[in-house]
Amino acid sequence: MRHPAARPAGDGVAFARRLITEIGVAAVPAVSFWRPENAEFGESKIRFAFPKRLETLRAAVERLEKLQP
Fold first, then answer.
1. CA 59/CA 24 separation, integer angstroms
2. Check: CATH 3.30.200.20 for 4-64?
């Protein structure tokens, strides 16, 4: 089960900005991957890129655990 604060509340762009500014983890708003006529399907989603170094992933997990509802 996902933590309630770990999902965008309908605005993936704002949530992605929050992750960068408050947590220090970058995500891409998924709406940018949808065609304009279907953009509503991507509005509440974000995407992560996974780096190659395991220590970078561990640091991201530690930062994401700071999310509070």
1. 10
2. no
Residue with tokens 């304009």: 36
Q: Which token pair is 6?
A: 């770990």
Burial class (CB in 10 A: 0-12, 13-18, 19+), 56: exposed
What one-letter code names the amino acid at 44? S
pTM of this structure: 0.70
| List of E strands, 1-69 | 28-29, 46-47
DSSP state at residue 37: G
Place of tokens 């279907």: 38
pLDDT tens column, 5-63? 555 556 899 999 999 999 999 999 999 899 999 988 989 899 988 877 999 989 999 99
Looking at the chain, list the stretches that DSSP marks H as alpha helix, in order from N- to C-terminal side.
12-18, 54-64
Residue spans of the domains in the chain: they are 4-64
